[in-house]
Backbone:
């Protein structure tokens, strides 16, 4: 009985440990223009959206930067309230968390060295391709193109170094961050066309319909006013 009482007290203490005046956002801040570091702060499209959500709830926004493949577990365990990290909405993830309405439609593109013999996106499937661990690109190639040799990395910067060092033939990733990478690495280029399109949503713990409804209300307002397009332009200049 004592053991059960101690466990109950620990559970209650853990549950009471969260500051109700704070909205905790979890992300992986290496995904410009959606979330990245600038002068020691995390900024980007998703951060602007999260700020508006926190403002509407009259809460202080707190951002936790972790590895992408751990993000959904943070939501499921209740350690974070919302997840914004350019998260593609798919059926597999819907089984784990609830998603807001879609707020971005993105394309998965191919980055190669400028002198690469890969000149068409359709030529990457039998090559050695770098993808972010747990990303939609990872899932896509794993499920549909098993002949592709995948190199899974947690960070995009590591993928870029692998490509520049000829350890992989190409990178497959989201279009906007890809453009930011190519801007900073003049020996890289994005091939014409794209592998597939996907849509982004905000992840919320399953069953938390109250928060989900409030998040969707903010997103609808931002979309209708053209604010999300403004954020994208702001962080891709």
Residues:
């Amino acid at each position: 009985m004592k053991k059960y009482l101690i466990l109950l007290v620990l559970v209650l203490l853990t549950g009471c440990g969260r500051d109700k005046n704070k909205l905790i956002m979890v992300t992986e801040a290496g995904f410009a223009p959606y979330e990245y570091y600038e002068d020691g702060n995390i900024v980007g499209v998703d951060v602007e959206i999260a700020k508006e959500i926190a403002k509407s709830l009259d809460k202080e926004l707190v951002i936790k930067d972790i590895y992408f493949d751990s993000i959904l577990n943070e939501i499921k365990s209740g350690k974070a309230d919302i997840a914004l990290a350019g998260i593609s909405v798919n059926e597999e993830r819907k089984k784990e968390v609830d998603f807001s309405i879609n707020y971005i439609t993105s394309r998965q593109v191919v980055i190669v060295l400028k002198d690469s013999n890969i000149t068409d996106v359709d030529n990457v499937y039998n090559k050695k391709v770098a993808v972010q661990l747990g990303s939609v690109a990872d899932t896509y190639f794993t499920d549909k193109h098993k002949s592709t040799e995948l190199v899974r990395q947690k960070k995009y910067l590591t993928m870029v170094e692998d490509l520049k060092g000829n350890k992989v033939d190409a990178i497959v990733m989201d279009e906007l961050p890809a453009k930011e990478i190519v801007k900073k690495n003049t020996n890289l280029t994005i091939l014409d066309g794209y592998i597939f399109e996907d849509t982004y949503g905000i992840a919320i713990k399953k069953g938390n319909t109250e928060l989900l409804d409030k998040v969707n209300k903010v997103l609808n307002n931002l979309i209708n006013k053209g604010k999300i397009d403004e954020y994208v332009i702001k962080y891709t200049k």
User: Anything to note?
Assistant: Confidence is low (pLDDT under 50) at residues 1-16. The two ends are 62 Å apart (CA to CA).
